[in-house]
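Deliverable D2.4 — example input (structure tokens):
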């Protein structure tokens, strides 16, 4: 994996703070009728279901390519994940590897870190239900970091014992439809965000609403997804 730039390697710290194994490996048993009749949802559940979480139980596999671009430089890696079995396959120009998230050798941990990172950029609205290792706070009418618009802000504060990079905080900014439009990342021990990006170009993949583009305010750095397929 030597072809990955230092920039892409540093991204492992951005969203890899979750536990190594989360409830995303288990299929949800809720039906659409149960979802629509649900009452007293938390804001986290509202965000997840706004992104089509009720359809996740039908997903056998999801494939995607994670791309990080800084200026004219782009680094990419492709994944295929079977959430019901935990099987994950990584593909790059010089690497092909398959492992299982339910158990793997220590030498595979570096691959799992990358998978966790990329999956969070892709499916963070669902991680709000899958993860149990964080606290959160809600604030109304907060200035968002990229567009400067007033939005609802939810601070997701991972616990000190949580996953690969414990203690990190994410602020997500949602619109009136409970869709994430921006977020920022603050690493453990820091008082200032390290990165803030948009969540845009939402597309529907068999009922899952996925943001294909994450852009910074200046536009010099972005993360985007291609080749998304849900089966």
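Example output (designed residues):
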């Amino acid at each position: 994996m030597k072809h990955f730039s230092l920039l892409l390697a540093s991204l492992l710290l951005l969203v890899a703070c979750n536990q190594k194994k989360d409830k995303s490996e288990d299929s949800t048993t809720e039906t659409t009728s149960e979802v629509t009749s649900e009452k007293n949802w938390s804001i986290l559940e509202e965000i997840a279901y706004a992104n089509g979480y009720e359809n996740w139980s039908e997903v056998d596999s999801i494939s995607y390519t994670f791309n990080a671009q800084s200026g004219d430089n782009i680094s990419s890696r492709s994944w295929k994940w079977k959430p019901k079995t935990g099987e994950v396959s990584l593909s790059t120009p010089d690497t092909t590897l398959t492992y299982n998230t339910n158990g793997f050798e220590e030498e595979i941990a570096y691959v799992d870190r990358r998978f966790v990172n990329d999956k969070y950029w892709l499916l963070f609205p669902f991680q709000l239900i899958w993860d149990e290792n964080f606290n959160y706070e809600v604030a109304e009418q907060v200035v968002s970091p990229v567009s400067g618009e007033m939005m609802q802000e939810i601070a997701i504060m991972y616990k000190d014992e949580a996953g690969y990079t414990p203690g990190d905080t994410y602020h997500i900014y949602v619109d009136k439809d409970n869709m994430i439009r921006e977020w920022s990342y603050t690493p453990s021990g820091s008082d200032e965000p390290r990165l803030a990006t948009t969540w845009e170009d939402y597309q529907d993949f068999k009922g899952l609403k996925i943001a294909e583009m994450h852009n910074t305010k200046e536009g010099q750095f972005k993360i985007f997804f291609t080749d998304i397929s849900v089966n």
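The longest strand covers residues 73-82.
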